[in-house]
Queue: 3 jobs
Job 1
Amino acid sequence: MTGPEQNRPQQTLLVALAHPDDEVGMVAAMRAQVERGDRVVLLWLTRGEMTEALGPIPTEEIVRRRTEHGRIAGEILGVETRFLDFPDTAVHATPEAAARVARVIAEVQPDGVLTWGYAWRRGLRHPDHQATGKIVRDAITLARIKRCVEPLAPHRKPVPVFTYRDRHSRMPSVAIDAAPY
């Protein structure tokens, strides 16, 4: 790395999603951060055990395969991967869910977060996606509160949230040139 990028401190991006495979639309953003020399942590709240995409196989086998797919995706992208154990198709934005993710935020100490935003199109409007986005946004606030994340230290730095939205969003659009990746 040369120029102004070489003197900048490493930053951490937390990408928090509902299911393994949700990252497909965000791989260019993750890879761009990795190429800048940043740390990227990809967190899935579920293991995607309700999918039918792998055929009629037992749930335990789906969990094993999707966990392995997530690990491989992380290797390809050069990012750290983590899973929580929320139930697929039953992710709910509760205070307890936000507290669990707040502890991850306190541990990871991200400089920015990429997660689901509000959307209405098929796929984007999946209830798990909508709940995950709310959980993550709530967790950023809870991660600032010492008693919510003890024994970890609270994460009180500003954490901008970037969300994956559909074309109907009135929020400003940001595009990442995926051609190099």
Note: Strands lie at 12-17, 39-44, 80-83, 112-116, 161-164.
Job 2
Amino acid sequence: MVREPDKLLRKYEDVLSNQAVKFSSYTLQSLRTLEPILKYLKRHSIDSMMDLGCGYGVLTLIVAEYLGVKRVVAIDIDEQRLALLDKIKSRCPIEVVTLQRDFCVLGDVDERVQLVTSFGALEHTTCWDEFLGNVKRVLVDGGYLLISMPNISSWVNRLALLLGYQPRDIEISRKRLYGELPPFRSHTVAGHVRVATFRAFKEYLIDNGFEIVMARPLYDKQNLLVNMIDKLLPSPSISRRFIILAKKRS
């Protein structure tokens, strides 16, 4: 049986034929592992949504249509990526507003929404406190934050440190990768500058007025061997990436 997120994904097959778009979002590759959280949100009648660091916006549109929201505000600093989103947003039967902004500086954005999403964007910045302050400001009381990111305490990074290699999710240069495990040496620089453990990020959210609703490990379908290990180690505390659904306390 074809899952609903996969049906929605087919609407953008031509867009995803561009490898730069297809592999720009790890969470997009992990759509099936995201589905249980989306099912939970769908039962809570989300009408409005803001995606911070939306990139090309394919995942933004899929999540919005799956949840049946009426209005989406998609925010990203990259003008070219937003230009693509502007071209494809008509495929989604929802009002989609795109804004070119640094999501750490949203003083002129006065939207109030029920759901804020951010998929694989925060680790490219150091403005975490400003980001979370903006999230709390735009969220209504009882609103949700859905966020995914790499896990610095993943089994891959633990193995790398044990063998004396640089953890995959912390890069020391914008030019190339240094000290990586051999399987990652052909990879390009992702631009990760700050990454948390699963435990630390949960504590960070709780300390800033959120309660954790759900948390899941994320894995894609590209590498069968790595996915097999992921499934044998299903805890988000050791997974390569995790996704957290948190609720803003009143």
Note: The mean pLDDT is 91.
Job 3
Amino acid sequence: EKICTFFQPIVSLKTGEIFAYEALVRGIHDNSTTLIAPCDLFRKAELETISIEFDRLCRKKALESFKQFHSESSSMLFMNINTSVISPENPERPHINVITNQMGFKPQKIGLELIESRAFSSTELIDFVAHYREAGFLIVIDDFGCEHSNIDRLIQIHPDVIKVDRSIITNIESDTYRQSILKSIHSLAQMTGALCLAEG
């Protein structure tokens, strides 16, 4: 369990206030303060066939860390969900409900970020989203515009929040093409009742 959690603030452009934090996981090398990048951690977990266990550990650590200052903050917590581990054998439905409840968090204060990895099947993903939306969790599509976070996934899950991938945001101030793409995504979000977030 030698991992730690950092919290990246999500800021409202209208008010300038932090309304949520995204939990970011990092590993810690033995006998060192050197951090291990998340892509290396998840790649190793996949090689060792413990992706599900590691995904759950990350959520547990995020909730434990967030609990320390949650009493002084009304902000939400956004947690990443590895969509590749959602399958008939491991639906992940009981786990998130149980651990969130154990930590004393209401589902309405938690956003589940579906990352850009390929899902086991669209049916399982849709069932997962339906279950947690009904339970009161916010559904977030992460890294929209990257890999499997595309229009197909948007249609499947009807997200409450669309997080626009950093590749679209980078250098947008000087790139009219990127600006046009972002305007289109923002219009789509407005028409579907979703909130639009810009990464980075």
Note: The two ends are 28 Å apart (CA to CA).
